Amino acid sequence: MAAELQMKLEEKQAKCYEIKKAFMDLKREVCKKAAYSRTDKPIPERKIDEWEERENIKSKELQSLRLENLRLRNQLAKNQKILKKKEELAEGLHLIDFEQLKIENQTLNEKIEERNEDLHKLKKKNTNTVQILTHYKEKLTFVIDENETLVQKGKILDEELEKERRALGDEKEKKKQLQDDIQQLKQATGIINSDSLRLDYDRLIKENKNDEKMVTYLTEKIQHMEKCIKEFNKKLAQSKIGGYSGKNTYFGGSMNGSHASINQ
What is the pTM for the complete model shown? Predict the structure, then answer.
């Protein structure tokens, strides 16, 4: 009889293991075909293994708690039978012994309820952990994409700043050349009342003023772009720490203003 029961138990355990393995394989296939909702990227194999390992740990804890629950239930049933027998044969027992058994029975019932609550809390905690992990992974992917976008925009700003600096240098050279030409004209002739010299001198003065305005404009533009780059570097440093929420406002406001100035 015992050998037959042992054989049936082994068959049930083998079947249970096959069903569990098939279910785990099904979940793994579903995870491989799944993807993140925002990035549409597949879930890495390493993360699937990590989730399976956590699930195995929780399953072992759950199995242990179930066994403990069964043991306590069996102990409760046994105590209830003993109590029932003692109640049947309790003609000679004192009232205080009967009350003590009832107290012990109540204590065991409370322990069972506590175990059931702990089991429910573990299930809820496991679900919350999976949800939090998924949220943080999506958040990390979003922050990485935002960081790459910021780096590209920073490179574009650096290139535009370098162009403006070269243009400013060219304008300064033109201004210096005009000043040298004016000085040479003043030294070469002492004729002040000549109409052609006066007209040429007025033209050079006008060009000089225009060049000074251009130099002033380019200087202000470079200062504005340097300010934008400093703000960009500050925002980039903050994004590495995890504060990515302010990036969209920065590039939607300050950077758009700098591009508008450049287009002018």
Answer: 0.29
